[in-house]
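Proteins fold reproducibly. Take a tokenised chain:

. . .
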Amino acid sequence: MRVGLDATPLVTSTGGVPRYVRELHRALQALRSGDEFRFFSDQPVQGAIGPRGGWLERKWWIAGLPLALRRERIDVFHGTEYAVPYWPACASVLSLHDLSPWMDAAWHTASVARVRARTPWLLRLGLPAMVLTLSEAVRKQAIARFGLDPARVAAVPLAASETFARVAAPPGERYFLYTGTLEPRKNLPMLVEAWRPVWRECGVRLAIAGRRREDGPQFEAEAGLDLLGVVEEERLSLLYSGALAVVYPTFYEGFGLPVVEAMRCGAPVITSLDESVVEVAGGAAMHCDARDGRAWTAAMRTLALDGGRAAELSALGVARAAVFSWERTARETLEVYRKALRMRMR
């Protein structure tokens, strides 16, 4: 089977979707299944097949991509971020990472407008043979919102990269850690407000690591608050391992990859009550309502004062993270590709 994957998310170096595309491609190749996997994009992505030129092929989703898929004799195309070709040159699979584009408009910039308008039509027309979600929670949400056939929607979870592992952190001040994009959906102003009493009472710092999106919150410099910006993946294991706890107060997620990364490194986790995050954490995290700042203050205070509780969460998290692997993700995704191809051949 020859499989094409949309590599366009790799134009952005950080974030959950680019990491998903990189790790999935690597894991699929590592399976040595005898299948071939090729990248396609109309953007400058190393190793990706793009348009040959001319005005027709520049209409990428309408003509350029279908023509390229035909030339390369692709059997299944995986639209890794909410889109598949408008003309079905082969069987296709569409990744629906979450339903946030159709929820709170304040969570997104204007760039998501195309997804909000285009993806429902692709689904209504039945262009993707299969739809992939990252959690059972989002699978159920997608079926309900778009009226999808449950047999054509599969939930395949992500995993932490194998580069994440518990390492010995040098002694230093204690800190809570947030990692991820700085954007409205992540609920960071509430987190900072809830942390301040814990800083005053217990002296535990708050480190915020990640790329700030153009509409993301900005914070003034203050005692105890460390704004780290983008952190290279090689340093993240050290940050996770040294954290008193990872705090992830998101309003809504399709999966919540930082939760699994933190657990793999042995960091206790405090996160929200979002359905996907609760599913992924599997009872190995503390959960608080994303809008209840007092509950977050109390949870952080508990871990600052109760080393036994922190150690318990750490052990639970390590065991939970072991459930997820990119090999599992690749094998289950490959089966979705095969199912899409069988549907195409009926």
In short: The first strand starts at residue 2 and ends at 6. The mean pLDDT is 95. Residues 326-345 form the longest helix (20 residues).
